Amino acid sequence: MSKRFDHGIISHGRTFYVDVCKHYCYDYNCKYNNEVIKMVKVFALIIGIILIALIAWWFFGKHEQAAQSAQVKDNGQKATVVVNGGYSPSTVVLKKGVPGQVDFDMRDHTACLSHVVFDSLGVNKDLTKQKITTVKIPTDKAGEFNFACGMDMFHGKVVVK
């Protein structure tokens, strides 16, 4: 049976005290436990700050890849973008005035990457119907055509120079 006293609780032969932080500790180790608790709090704060910084970098940082130029042949130019956990390369360069197309090589069948959307061209293609899906790009004038997955989480662009 427990008895309640002003300075703590006596229970089953052990005495416990409540410290300011509302943590329970044994009689002889209170000072030690408070120091450990402070160290754990500081360590958790440092780890939390590092994790927040990494998450912010991952979502908001620029992750530029080298732009890939299209292969020019007799009847036009063609570039291939591999779809596998994102778009690689995420930037494709086409020459102005030469008919161009971008082939999307689908290797990742997640729901997010199942479509490619070019808002400025009015293109929304399902990439799961075949391994390679072709999107024709107008190259009559210089500019950029941004594309994204169906959920607007992964992005890329086609640059016409």
TrEMBL record:
Protein name according to UniProt: EfeO-type cupredoxin-like domain-containing protein
Membrane-crossing segments per the record: 42-60
Keyword terms, alphabetized: Membrane, Transmembrane, Transmembrane helix
All residue ranges annotated as the EfeO-type cupredoxin-like domain in the record: 52-160
Keyword Membrane recorded: yes
